[in-house]
Backbone:
């Protein structure tokens, strides 16, 4: 789509700034584009922007705080900072509780607490006194305890704040899959290098979303979004089926490989490198509160594009998936796929000119014949010959001659390093003047070599 904007009065110049707002018609409508490059390869881009009505019922939030030994130092400071922001964004009429976990776990309160000022102050005091003193990182038992105590009629949201160095990831995944109808698990990764694969996998299987907050980074926006998600249902376990009129096919390379949960008015973009196959539609399958939903997106010929922009976006997303190890919910399988797909990632990087950790750009300068001729001339120039043509000031230590008259010549040579001292004070002789007149003898002393050089002494016939 192309549009042109012009001034109403073409005779008057534009003297003020203006803001151009561009909106998308039917923003929540799913869309699909197919791009074809010069070699005939195809890439697709899907855009999902779901909007659905829901009742904002009372929600229950349980915060699982990692107090293992790996959380010492800056990680514990970050946990306290993030937890304070969570408490400040707790929705009205919601309930909360806190579980500290490590090698074991412990509840802060016996039952759910209201979001009153008094109860929140109790939570803040507890957070301020947290220490990394609970040994290992066994999240599974604490997660199971939080899910088993869910309240009837309330949507339970488990928010895990950790660096992701978990000892029982498989157990956590099993627990998340078994209870994903009654509760969701949202994870917040903190620290310099959190385990993104583990935290994303746990949140994905349970219908939640993982967020990561680096040291010193602003946490308000991301935590506020996590708390809002806790008030609404989600489209979880989403999968994309790529197809044509004849058959349902799988994309050669879909990116991202694993699709996160979809929430109200949150956009999801999925790319597919389709080789030379022609796809006419794609279908999104997901579950919402235990019910299966399906959404089909058709691609019309008017949506076909020429170029390589979508190809490069798809390649970059695919490379990022590989680098983060987000190829499978099973960590061992993900690592195995990562080893198997290494050469494929290198080939993709080279083919679509998107740099990865195994490739780099090399700049090659090409010059026209005239530039090459000039360069050769410059290379053949000898510096010594250039210097001969230049006028160079003679330095003071180079001997020089001045004619004072026809009968007298003063010739100045280098200063003597040492001469007779007078009154135990070092004095310097300006120089011995070699005179044509034998009757003339000039000797003058100076307190420093600089003065001796700067002072000009000329022989006079009247001096003795």
Residues:
């Amino acid at each position: 789509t192309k549009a042109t904007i012009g001034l109403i009065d073409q005779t008057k110049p534009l003297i003020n700034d203006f803001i151009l707002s561009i909106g998308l018609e039917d923003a929540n409508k799913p869309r699909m584009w197919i791009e074809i490059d010069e070699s005939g390869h195809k890439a697709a881009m899907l855009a999902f922007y779901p909007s659905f009505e829901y009742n904002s019922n009372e929600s229950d939030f349980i915060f699982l705080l990692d107090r293992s030994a790996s959380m010492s130092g800056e990680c514990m400071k970050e946990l306290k900072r993030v937890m304070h922001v969570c408490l400040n964004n707790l929705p009205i009429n919601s309930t909360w509780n806190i579980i500290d976990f490590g090698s074991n776990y412990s509840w802060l309160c016996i039952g759910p607490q209201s979001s009153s000022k008094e109860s929140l102050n109790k939570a803040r005091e507890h957070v301020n006194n947290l220490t990394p003193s609970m040994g290992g990182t066994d999240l599974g038992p604490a997660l199971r305890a939080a899910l088993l105590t869910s309240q009837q009629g309330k949507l339970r949201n488990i928010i895990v704040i950790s660096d992701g160095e978990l000892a029982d990831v498989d157990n956590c995944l099993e627990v998340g899959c078994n209870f994903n109808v009654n509760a969701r698990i949202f994870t917040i990764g903190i620290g310099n290098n959190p385990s993104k694969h583990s935290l994303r996998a746990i949140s994905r299987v349970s219908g939640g979303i993982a967020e990561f907050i680096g040291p010193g980074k602003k946490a308000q926006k991301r935590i506020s979004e996590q708390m809002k998600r806790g008030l609404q249902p989600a489209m979880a376990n989403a999968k994309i089926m790529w197809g044509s009129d004849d058959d349902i096919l799988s994309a050669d390379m879909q990116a991202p490989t694993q699709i996160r949960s979809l929430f109200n008015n949150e956009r999801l973009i999925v790319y597919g490198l389709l080789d030379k196959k022609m796809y006419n539609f794609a279908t999104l399958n997901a579950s919402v509160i235990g019910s299966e939903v399906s959404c089909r997106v058709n691609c019309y010929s008017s949506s076909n594009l020429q170029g390589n922009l979508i190809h490069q976006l798809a390649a970059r997303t695919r490379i990022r998936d590989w680098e983060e190890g987000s190829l499978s919910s099973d960590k061992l399988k993900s690592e195995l796929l990562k080893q198997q797909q290494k050469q494929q990632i290198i080939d993709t990087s080279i083919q679509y000119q998107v740099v990865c950790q195994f490739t780099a750009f090399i700049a090659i300068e090409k010059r026209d014949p005239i530039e090459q001729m000039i360069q050769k001339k410059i290379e053949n120039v000898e510096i010594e010959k250039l210097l001969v043509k230049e006028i160079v000031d003679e330095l003071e230590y180079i001997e020089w001659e001045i004619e004072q008259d026809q009968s007298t010549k003063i010739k100045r040579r280098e200063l003597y390093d040492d001469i007779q001292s007078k009154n135990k004070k070092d004095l310097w002789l300006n120089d011995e003047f070699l005179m044509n007149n034998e009757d003339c003898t000039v000797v003058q002393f100076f307190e420093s070599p600089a003065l001796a050089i700067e002072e000009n002494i000329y022989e006079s016939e009247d001096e003795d």
Summary: The chain is about 30% helix and 25% strand.
